[in-house]
C-alpha cells in the first residue's frame, strides 16, 4: 500500500482536499451516501438551492436548521491530524460547511462552500450570530430573511475563495484527498491545477474517479489518520 506517512515526511507543501467523509466520524451525516443527509428528502438539491431560498424561504430554513446544523459536533482525529500536519507545512481546502476543520485549529483553511456558522441578512447585509438564526429566520431589526454563508445550488463559488483554493492546489507537492467521492464540481476540478510533479493521494472508503495519476488508499480515513503524524 502507498506509504502516506513517508509522503508527508518528504513533502514541502501539503494540501488536503476534504469532504463529508471526514465529518461523519463527528456525527454529521454525509451529504450523498446511503442513509445520509439527502437519503430521505424528495429533492435535496432543490431544497438547498438559491431558488428554494428565494421562493420558499420557510422550506429552506426548515431543511437547513433541522438537518444541517450540529453546533455541538467536535473535530475528530482526522481534523486534528490535518490541522497538525498543515500547520507544519500546508493548507486544508474543505467542502464541509460544518466548521469542524477550523475548530481543530489549523492556520490555513479554505472553506470552499462557505460555512453555516456565518449568517447574514439578505435585506441589510449585516452579519447575525448563527444562534439567532437558529431561533428565527428573520432579522430582528428589519425583518429581512437571514441566510448562512454557504454556497447553494445555483450559486457560484466566491471569487477570492476560488483563487485561494487554486493557489493552495498549485503550490502543493503533495495533495491528499480525504473523505470525498470527488463528484462535486467545481471542487473536483481543482485537481487540474496540481503541479505535474505533485504526488496525489486519495483516502476514501470507495474508489474515487480522479484519474490514474492518483494513489488510492481505499480505507476508512479515521484508521489511516490516527496513525499519521506531522
Ligand atoms: Zn437586516
UniProtKB/TrEMBL annotation:
InterPro entries in alphabetical order: DHS-like_NAD/FAD-binding_dom, NAD-dep_sirtuin_deacylases, Sirtuin, Sirtuin_cat_small_dom_sf, Ssirtuin_cat_dom
Give start and end of each Deacetylase sirtuin-type domain. 1-230
Q: What is the main EC category here?
A: transferase
Q: Name one GO molecular function term.
A: NAD-dependent protein lysine deacetylase activity
Q: Extract the Gene3D superfamilies matched here.
A: SIR2/SIRT2 'Small Domain, TPP-binding domain
Enzyme Commission code(s) on record: 2.3.1.286
- UniProt entry tagged with the keyword Transmembrane: no
Which domain of life does the UniProt lineage start with?
Bacteria
Q: Which UniProt keywords apply?
A: Acyltransferase, NAD, Transferase
One family name in Pfam for this protein: SIR2
| Family annotation (PANTHER family) | NAD-DEPENDENT PROTEIN DEACYLASE, NAD-DEPENDENT PROTEIN DEACYLASE SIRTUIN-5, MITOCHONDRIAL-RELATED
| Protein name according to UniProt | protein acetyllysine N-acetyltransferase
Which species? Schleiferilactobacillus harbinensis
Organism lineage: Bacteria, Bacillati, Bacillota, Bacilli, Lactobacillales
Amino acid at each position: 500500500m502507498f506509504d502516506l506517512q513517508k509522503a508527508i515526511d518528504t513533502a514541502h507543501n501539503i494540501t488536503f482536499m476534504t469532504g463529508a467523509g471526514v465529518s461523519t466520524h463527528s456525527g454529521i451525516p454525509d451529504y450523498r451516501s446511503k442513509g445520509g443527509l439527502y437519503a430521505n428528502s424528495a429533492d435535496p438539491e432543490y431544497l438547498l438551492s438559491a431558488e428554494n431560498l428565494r421562493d420558499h424561504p420557510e422550506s429552506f430554513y426548515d431543511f437547513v436548521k433541522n438537518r444541517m446544523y450540529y453546533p455541538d459536533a467536535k473535530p475528530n482525529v482526522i481534523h486534528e491530524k490535518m490541522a497538525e500536519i498543515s500547520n507544519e507545512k500546508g493548507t486544508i481546502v474543505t467542502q464541509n460547511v460544518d466548521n469542524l476543520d477550523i475548530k481543530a485549529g489549523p492556520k490555513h483553511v479554505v472553506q470552499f462552500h462557505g460555512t453555516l456558522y456565518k449568517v447574514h441578512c439578505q435585506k441589510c447585509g449585516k452579519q447575525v450570530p448563527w444562534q439567532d438564526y437558529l431561533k428565527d429566520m428573520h432579522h430582528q431589526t428589519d425583518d429581512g430573511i437571514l441566510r448562512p454563508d454557504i454556497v447553494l445550488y445555483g450559486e457560484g463559488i466566491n471569487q477570492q475563495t476560488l483563487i485561494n483554493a487554486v493557489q493552495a492546489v498549485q503550490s502543493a507537492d503533495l495533495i491528499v484527498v480525504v473523505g470525498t467521492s470527488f463528484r462535486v464540481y467545481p471542487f473536483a476540478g481543482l485537481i487540474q491545477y496540481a503541479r505535474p510533479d505533485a504526488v496525489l493521494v486519495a483516502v476514501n472508503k470507495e474508489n474515487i474517479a480522479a484519474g490514474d495519476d492518483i494513489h488510492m488508499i481505499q480505507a476508512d480515513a479515521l484508521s489511516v489518520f490516527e496513525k499519521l503524524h506531522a
